[in-house]
Amino acid sequence: MHRKHLPMSLRILVVSTLLPVAGAASAQTTSAPLSYPAAARGTQVDDYHGTSVADPFRWLEDVDAPATKSWVEAQNRLTDSFLATIPERPAIRTRLGQLWNYARWSAPFKQNGRYFYFLNTGLQNQSVLYVQEGRTAAARVLLDPNTLSSDGTVALSGTAASDDGRYLAYSLSTSGSDWQELHVRDVNTGRDLADTVKWVKFSGISWTHDNKGFFYSRYDEPTSGNKMTNTNRNHKLYYHRLGRPQSRDDLVFDRPDQPDWLFDGTVTDDGQYLIITVSQGTDVRTRLYFIDLDNPGKPQIDNPVVRLIDKFDAEYVFVGNRNTMFYVRTDRNAPKGRIVAISIDNPREERWNTIIPESKDALVSALMAGEDIVANYLQDAHSSVRFFTASRNDPRDQRRGQQPPQRRNPGSIYDDTSTAPLVTRERNNQMLGGGFTAHGELPLPGIGTVGEIQGRQGDNEMFYSFTSYLNPTTIYRFDVKARTNEVFKAPKVAFDPTAYETRQVFYSSKDGTRVPMFITSTNGIALDGNNPTLLYAYGGFNISLTPSFSAANIAWMDMGGIYAVPNLRGGGEYGKDWHEAGMLAKKQNVFDDFIAAAEYLIKEKYTSTPKLAIRGGSNGGLLVGAVMTQRPELFGAALPEVGVMDMLRFQKFTIGWAWTSDYGSSDKADQFKYLVAYSPLQNIKPGKCYPPTLAFTADHDDRVVPGHTFKFMATLQAAQACANPTLVRIETKAGHGAGKPTTKLIEETADRFAFLVKELHMRPTFQ
C-alpha cells in the first residue's frame, strides 16, 4: 500500500525530532548558587483516594496568565545570561552550522509516473517538496514552506498526491502546534485551489481514485477555553470534495459514545476499499473496519461501515489486499508479530491463514511492493528487511471463478453490531490466502535503520532510506522484480566516518533482564573513566530507538564525547512483551534499565559520574526526571526535554488522556499508587543536591503542555541544596519538536553543548 507521508508520528510522543546531543558534569559545581526568579507558592492541595498531594505551583499551568508570562521571561533571562558567559558557545554554534550544512533527501513517493520528494539543501529552515515527471527528469519546486513565514515556523506536516498525480493535498502546522490546516495544490500549475480545511489533528490524508476528494480526520472547532491546552475528544473521519467548502464535507464515521477513539482512513492501492483503523489513545491495540467503495472510479463513500475486527485485543494493521483477501499484520497470538490473510467474505478468526509466521525478531511494519510483501523487522534493535512472495502453486491459492454473488447477514460473520447488509460481488482471480514464501532479504550497507519505505502494489519500483550512527540518511532504489539495488540520493557530510566506531553491548538490568545498548565514539578511546558521555533513551509507547545519523552527535564526538543509546523496556525493539514489561505498574523497569546502563558505562570505565550526562525528550523527559530524582548522585548533568513531569495530572490536558494506556491514571486508586511513587514533580525532595540541569520546553507545545516543565523546574529550583545550576530554556513559537526550523535546532543544540562544556570543565577544540 502507498504510505501516507506524515513526518510526525500519530502515536503521541515525538522522539524522532529530538536530535541527540551531549555532555556531562561534575556532581556539584564550585560556583556560587544562582538566584532564581521568584515563584509564589500557592495553597492548592488535591485529594487522591485519601492521600493529600500539594501542588503549590498549579498557577504555572495557565500559560497565558500574566504571572506565568513574567516567570517565563525571567527564567529565559537567567538562562540566557548564564549561557552568554560560556566562551565556547559561538565556536560550538559555528561548528554545528558546518556539520548541519549538507543536502538531505526523503525517499520519493510515486504517483502516476510523478516522483515527489523532500530536499533540504543544508541550512534551510524547512525541507522543500520537489516533483519530477520521471525518474531521470529534472526536478522542480512544488511547495517551499520557507516562503510561508519569515522565521521558518510554518512547517509542512503531511502530504498526499491524488491517484492521477494531478493534485497534492498538504497540511501545515504553525509554531510546532499539532493543529493542522489542509490545502490543495495543482501539481501542473503549482498554484493552490481555494480549498481549505481547518481543525485537523492526528490525521492522515487519503484520496479516492476518482481524484475528486480525500479522507481526513479532525476534531470540532473549540468554542471555549484555550485551544492549546483543552482536552481533545470526539475524533471524526470526514471526506472533502474538491471545490466545496469545508462546511459541506461528508461525515464518514464517528462514535459519539466513544469520545476517546481515534480514526484513520486509508484507501487501498486498488481504490476499492476505505480502511478505517480505530485506535484508543496510544494503545497499540486497534480495531479494523472498512467501507466497500463499490467502484474506484465512482466511489460510494456513504456505503456502510463494516466492522471486520471489532475486538480490542491486539494490534491489527492493514498491509494490502488482493481483491477480497486482506493481509493484516498482528500480534494476536504472536508477540513479535505475524501477517495473516483474512477473507472478508468469511472473516472468522478460525479461518484466518498465517501467511508470514512469527519470527524470533520483531516485525515492526510491512507493506506491499510489486507482488511482494515487504516486511521490516528489528533484529537486536537494527533493521532487517525481508521479502515474501505468494506461492502460486499453493493448493490454497484457488480461483473463485464463477462463484455467484452472495448476501450474508454480517452479524453472523463479522464482529459487528450493525444490521446493514453486506453485498459480496463476484470477483475473478480471487486469492484465498495461500502461502507466502521467503524471497530474500534487502541488502543493507551495515547495521542501521531502514526508515521510510515507499512502495505500491503492482509497481516493482521501491524506494527506502538507510541510516546509522555513522551513515547519513541515504536514499536507495530497489527493483522488486529484478532484485537490483542502487543509490538514488546520497548526502555528503563534512566528516570522515572511518574515524568513528559504533559497538553494540548487552548489560544486565536490576532484575537480570538482558538489555542492548549502542555506544558510538571516535576510534580508540581510552577506557579510563574520563570520557564525557551522553546517555540518551526513551523507553515507552512501543517506540524503538534504532541507529540514526545526527550532525550534532558528530560534533559531540569531535569534542571528545561518547554517545550511548540503551534500548529500554517499554519500547518496541523486541515486540509486545518488551513493550508491556515497561508500562503501567511495570514502568519502574524502564528507569531501572536506564540506571543499569549508567552503572555499566561507569563500571566498564567508559565514563564516571562527574562525566555522565543524561538526556531524553517527551516520554524520555519523564525518564530523565524520574531517574534524576531517584538517583541524583549517579549523574553529572541532566537534560530533560518537553517531559511529562506531573504524572498525576497529565491526562487533563490536550491529548494527555491518550497516554493512560501506557501510564495508567491517577483517577484510579491502584494506578495512583505507582504513579505517585515515580512522578518526577512529586519526588523532588527539599535539601537534596541535584545534578546540573538544563530543561527544555516550548510555549506552543500542545502535546506535552509546558506547565509540566514549568512546575517541575520551579519545584527543583526551590529544593536545590547545592550550587549546581537548575535552569530552563523556554523556546517561543515552537511546539513539541516536529517542524522546528533548522535555525532553532542549531541554536538549541549549541546551548546544550555550551551548558555541558561549562559544567564538565571540558576543553574542546574546534576545526
What features would you describe in this structure?
Strands 34-35-37-36-38-39-40-41 form an eight-stranded mixed β-sheet, with helices on both faces. It is built from eleven helices and 41 strands. The protein has 767 residues and is of the alpha+beta class.
In short:
The chain is of the alpha+beta class and 767 residues long.
Task: Tell me the layout of helices and strands.
Elements: E1 45-48, E2 51-54, H1 66-84, H2 89-100, E3 104-105, E4 109-111, E5 114-120, E6 128-132, E7 140-143, E8 154-161, E9 167-174, E10 180-186, E11 191-200, E12 206-207, E13 213-218, E14 236-241, E15 250-254, E16 261-267, E17 273-280, E18 286-292, E19 305-309, E20 316-322, E21 325-330, E22 338-343, E23 353-356, E24 362-369, E25 372-379, E26 382-390, E27 406-408, H3 410-413, E28 422-424, E29 436-441, E30 449-456, E31 459-467, E32 474-479, E33 484-489, E34 500-508, E35 514-522, E36 533-536, H4 551-558, E37 562-566, H5 576-580, H6 588-603, E38 612-617, H7 619-630, E39 637-641, H8 660-663, H9 669-678, E40 693-698, H10 707-719, E41 726-731, H11 742-760
Parallel strand pairs: 36-37, 36-38, 38-39, 39-40, 40-41
Antiparallel strand pairs: 1-2, 3-5, 4-5, 5-6, 6-7, 8-9, 9-10, 10-11, 12-13, 13-14, 14-15, 16-17, 17-18, 18-19, 20-21, 21-22, 22-23, 24-25, 25-26, 26-29, 27-28, 30-31, 31-32, 32-33, 34-35, 35-37
